[in-house]
Amino acid sequence: MADDRISLVFAALADPTRRAILTRLAEGDATVAELAAPFDVSQPAISRHLKVLENAGLISRTRRATARLSHLQAEPLREVTTWLARYQRFWDESHERLDELLAALQGRGPDGRTDVATKEEDDGQDRDHR
Predict the structure, then answer these.
(1) Which candidate, 54, 2, 48, places its Cα nearest to that of 25?
(2) How far apart are alpha carbons 93 and 4 in whole angstroms?
(3) Is 119 left (phi over 0), alpha (psi -120 to 50) or beta?
(4) Whole-number Å distance between alpha carbons of 66 and 72
(5) Phi, psi at residue 14, to the nearest 5°?
(6) Other C-beta atoms within 10 Å of 9: how many?
(7) CB count, 10 Å around CB of 64?
(8) Residue 108, class by beta-carbon neighbours within 10 Å (0-12 exposed, 13-18 middle, 19+ buried)?
(9) Which DSSP symbol is given to 36?
């Protein structure tokens, strides 16, 4: 997926109304009137939202008799998820480093015990082995 397509998808997902429309379309195809029902906006406003979603490749629209149905196209979401997954490893490693730093600042060893407890236990073993 080209970077400009990723930008279109993110721009489309930036609006909460469009995200709600996608959530509704995950349940099945719907007309503009059905998609507009839960919102306090006009059908032309919903149609403009649908055009943004269609331009991003997130929905397709077909005519069935006199109704125009919108249908979720999930592939761009999968492609964006794949793109974002590259950064998961970065965040996991960053969180691990942060956990290690916090443990060190709080005086815990790598096994989660405090350095004081570890030292006391080690001293006890030393006394027993003298």
Answers:
(1) 54
(2) 29
(3) alpha
(4) 20
(5) -70, -20
(6) 20
(7) 9
(8) middle
(9) H
* Residue 60 near residue 73 (C-beta atoms within 8 A): yes
Using DSSP's 3-state secondary structure scheme, residue 11 falls into helix
The beta-strand segments (E) located in 23-58 are: 30-31
* Predicted structure pTM score: 0.68
pLDDT digits (tens, 9 = 90+) for 33-48: 999 999 999 999 999 9
Output the six-digit token pair for 73. 């196209």
d(CA 40, CA 93): 44
Q: Give the span between the Cα atoms of 19 and 40, in whole angstroms.
A: 15
- The tokens 């490893």 sit on which residue? 89
C-alpha 103/C-alpha 105 separation (Å) is: 5
11-35 residue pLDDT tens: 999 999 999 999 999 999 999 999 9
**Which of 60, 76, 71 has the alpha carbon at shortest distance from 24?**
71
Q: How many CA atoms lie within 13 A of 105 on its CB side?
A: 6
